[in-house]
């Protein structure tokens, strides 16, 4: 039960420590950023200025939208489809999805751009930051007859000279020459750049000075094609939104209106093409029949006038049968004429997309009707997608296949018609033999009357078909409805200004943050307790010593009531806690390298142990560079080195200096620097002396050589109760210290405590953690802070303010 409770307490303590260090790390980084506040001010000022300049050149982009209703097979009154087959719009172009594809076809967009010259010319004025387009507000209009390649996309300036003349200029550079020319309004101007005519508009103002730019038709078509968006207004409906985005909404609306109107007209024109073709074909047949009908009618009238009795005698059944056969033969001839028309159409590769339907001229063959329909569909698909489309080649192959099948079908139909015609001619020959047996006058009248009726019936048939085609053409309406003219819906880049400011502000903050982080990360020295713990390999920080002005003295004895002395008392308590006793303690002090403050730490630690009025000894074991004697201003005499070397004149008692310089602790100095300090320290004699000293003194502090540089300290580290490892703030190399601590860890040195030395609490990044000492102990450096002044006043009786001011 006790073990479980202990584990819980340890876990809680560890969690609290981790939480505290995390908070300390966050505060440390915040203070480091605040320390370099000027970087943020400069960065924000620069990037906010850039954002302001960018927003000065901001131009709104508008979304213009028009609405269309796309339907299938509209425009016929009741019964028309039954009355006339073959004149409706082909299935491929009645499908809504195909209509949408046709809407954005390259050829249609090109015709729209060519319909308005203003679509390929920009008139504008250029300010310091923005360009102001003058669509429909330009003081002049330009009519293009010819434009050279060098003039496309080049900026030209045009200004009024005197109301009658103008000047056109263009700046040059390393690749192109400057250009200048003058002209008169209403008269053509021709030069190496272009052949144009400039005219005044209703918006003309004397002394104008504007710019213009000419564009290729294809480039504007590509631009409109890329920006055109067509989608359904709602799912399941045939209403589509046609939208375009640009910075000249009036021009975009005009483009959309023209596009929708042309699309509606194209749809109607395609439906009318079939009727027009049929009418033209019938007119060509009527032209031949008119003379024949007039001649036969005149012969009949002449015969009746000369032979009145014979004309009223009537005809026999043979003449009626012959007339019926001739009517059938006329239908066959009409079908032959259609087959001839269709054969010539295919042979000449006509691609107008409008073939007369077979059913309109009596050819009742389903296979041919289907092939004609497919042929028309493919022709129109190829026309709409254009030769640049990747599916144009596939349509061409399909068209070739349909054409081949049509030719085969036409040959078969021609053979069938020939068989029918030969059979009719044989029947007509039999009837003719019977008629030849009639009286001559009667035969003559019957022949004239038969020819007239035949021509009259054929003519009436053609006139009726022509009337039907005219009715179809007149009743045709477009399958599509221009539902709503284009209008401006919204500004699409309304939030760009705020985005520019926010993004620039973010960049302005990120850059100095990265700079500060880079500076801090690349800094090779340990500068905070959080950094020290990050390289400590599991070792803890036992104490933190703030910077003092008294680097060369024993502060504990000189200023016993100071806050610095109290931090050494805290460190003493930590050592007692870690070694689990208050007496008979031996402490080794080392560091990564020379200059980390180990001698300052060891001498003051010995002094704070001596404050308990217990025998305390400070051993100077740094035989390579002894510094205890220099710090304490000891007299030069034989010491530890002579003792270890076996000098008979030196005893342990004679080597130890009792309370030198009035200090409250004894010192065992190095004496003379030996030639082989490492061998002396690692000898058995050193351990014997150390064990003897433990018996004499309650507290022993050993100032060893820097363990990061030499291995001398290992001799007494294992024999001591603990090892204090001095790390100097802003002085100790992180990588060097990390490797040294890692080596100590691998060598089994467990009871090691880190002492963070020489911390400047006046620096912003340390004041948060260590400044409370100054406030608590009455440090004058916090007098200008209300919080610390209040803390100081509450605790002013604990420590001597005069000492705090000196230290």
UniProtKB/TrEMBL annotation:
UniProt GO molecular function: ATP binding; non-membrane spanning protein tyrosine kinase activity
Keywords assigned: ATP-binding, Coiled coil, Kinase, Membrane, Nucleotide-binding, Transferase, Transmembrane, Transmembrane helix, Tyrosine-protein kinase
EC nos: 2.7.10.2
One Gene Ontology term, aspect cellular component: plasma membrane
TM region(s), chain numbering: 37-53
Enzyme class label: transferase
InterPro entries associated with the record: AAA_dom, Bact_polysacc_biosynth/exp, P-loop_NTPase, Wzc-like_C
Catalysed reactions, semicolon-separated: L-tyrosyl-[protein] + ATP = O-phospho-L-tyrosyl-[protein] + ADP + H(+)
Domain AAA positions: 587-730
Coiled coil stretches, renumbered: 279-306, 368-423
Entry similarity comment: Belongs to the CpsD/CapB family.
Protein name: non-specific protein-tyrosine kinase
């Amino acid at each position: 039960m006790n073990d479980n409770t202990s584990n819980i307490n340890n876990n809680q303590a560890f969690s609290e420590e981790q939480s505290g260090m995390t908070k300390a790390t966050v505060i440390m980084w915040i203070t480091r950023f605040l320390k370099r506040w000027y970087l943020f001010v400069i960065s924000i000022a620069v990037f906010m200025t850039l954002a302001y300049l960018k927003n000065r050149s901001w131009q709104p982009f508008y979304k213009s939208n028009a609405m269309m209703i796309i339907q299938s097979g509209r425009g016929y009154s009741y019964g028309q489809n039954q009355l006339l087959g073959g004149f409706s719009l082909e299935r491929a172009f009645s499908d809504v999805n195909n209509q949408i594809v046709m809407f954005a076809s390259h050829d249609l967009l090109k015709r729209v751009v060519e319909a308005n010259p203003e679509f390929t010319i920009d008139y504008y004025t250029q300010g310091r930051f923005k360009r102001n387009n003058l669509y429909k507000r330009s003081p002049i209009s330009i009519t293009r007859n010819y434009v050279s390649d060098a003039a496309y996309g080049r900026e030209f300036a045009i200004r009024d000279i005197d109301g009658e003349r103008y000047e056109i200029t263009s700046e040059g550079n390393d690749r192109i020459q400057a250009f200048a020319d003058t002209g008169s309004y209403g008269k053509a101007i021709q030069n190496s750049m272009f052949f144009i005519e400039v005219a005044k508009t209703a918006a003309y103002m004397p002394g104008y000075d504007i710019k213009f730019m000419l564009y290729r038709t294809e480039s504007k078509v590509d631009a409109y094609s890329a920006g055109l968006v067509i989608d359904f207004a709602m799912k399941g409906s045939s209403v589509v939104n046609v939208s375009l985005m640009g910075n000249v909404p009036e021009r975009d609306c005009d483009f959309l209106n023209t596009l929708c109107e042309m699309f509606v007209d194209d749809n109607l024109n395609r439906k009318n093409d079939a009727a027009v073709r049929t009418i033209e074909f019938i007119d060509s047949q009527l032209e031949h029949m008119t003379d024949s009908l007039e001649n036969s009618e005149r012969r009949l009238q002449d015969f009746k006038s000369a032979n009145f009795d014979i004309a009223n005698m009537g005809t026999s059944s043979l003449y009626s049968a012959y007339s019926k056969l001739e009517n059938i033969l006329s239908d066959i001839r009409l079908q032959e004429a259609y087959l001839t028309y269709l054969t010539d159409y295919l042979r000449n590769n006509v691609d107008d997309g409008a073939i007369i339907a077979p059913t309109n001229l009596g050819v009742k063959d389903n296979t041919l009707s289907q092939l004609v329909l497919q042929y028309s569909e493919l022709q129109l698909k190829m026309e709409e997608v254009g030769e640049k489309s990747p599916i144009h080649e596939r349509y061409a192959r399909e068209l070739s296949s349909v054409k081949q099948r049509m030719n085969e079908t036409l040959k078969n139909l021609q053979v069938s018609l020939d068989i029918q015609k030969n059979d009719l001619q044989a029947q007509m020959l039999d009837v003719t033999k019977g008629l030849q047996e009639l009286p001559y006058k009667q035969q003559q009248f019957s022949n004239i009357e038969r020819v007239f009726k035949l021509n009259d019936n054929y003519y009436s048939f053609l006139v009726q078909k022509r009337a039907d085609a005219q009715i179809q053409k007149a009743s045709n309406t477009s399958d599509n409805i221009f539902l709503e003219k284009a209008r401006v819906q919204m500004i699409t880049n309304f939030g760009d200004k705020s985005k520019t400011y926010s993004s620039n502000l973010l960049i302005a903050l990120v850059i100095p943050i990265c700079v500060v982080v880079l500076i801090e990360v690349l800094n090779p020295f340990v500068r905070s307790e959080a950094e020290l713990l990050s390289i400590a390999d599991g070792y803890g920080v036992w104490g933190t010593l703030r910077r003092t002005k008294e680097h060369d003295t024993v502060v504990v004895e000189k200023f016993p009531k100071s806050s610095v002395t109290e931090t050494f008392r805290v460190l003493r308590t930590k050592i007692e806690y870690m070694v689990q006793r208050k007496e008979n303690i031996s402490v080794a002090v080392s560091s990564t390298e020379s200059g980390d403050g180990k001698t300052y730490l060891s001498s003051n630690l010995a002094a704070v142990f001596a404050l308990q009025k217990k025998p305390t000894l400070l051993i100077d074991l740094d035989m390579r560079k002894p510094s205890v004697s220099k710090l304490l201003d000891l007299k030069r005499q034989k010491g530890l080195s002579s003792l270890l070397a076996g000098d008979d004149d030196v005893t342990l008692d004679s080597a130890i200096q009792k309370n030198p310089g009035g200090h409250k602790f004894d010192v065992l100095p190095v004496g003379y620097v030996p030639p082989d300090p490492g061998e002396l320290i690692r000898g058995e004699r050193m351990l014997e002396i150390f064990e003897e000293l433990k018996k004499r003194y309650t507290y022993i502090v050993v100032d060893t050589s820097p363990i990061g540089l030499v291995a001398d300290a290992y001799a007494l580290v294992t024999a001591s109760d603990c090892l204090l490892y001095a790390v100097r703030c802003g002085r100790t190399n992180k990588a060097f210290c990390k490797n040294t601590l890692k080596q100590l860890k691998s060598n089994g040195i467990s009871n090691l405590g880190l002492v963070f030395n020489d911390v400047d609490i006046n620096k912003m990044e340390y004041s948060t953690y260590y400044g409370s000492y100054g406030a608590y102990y009455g440090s004058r450096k916090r007098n200008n802070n209300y919080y610390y002044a209040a803390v100081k006043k509450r605790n002013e009786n604990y420590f001597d303010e005069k000492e705090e001011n000196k230290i």
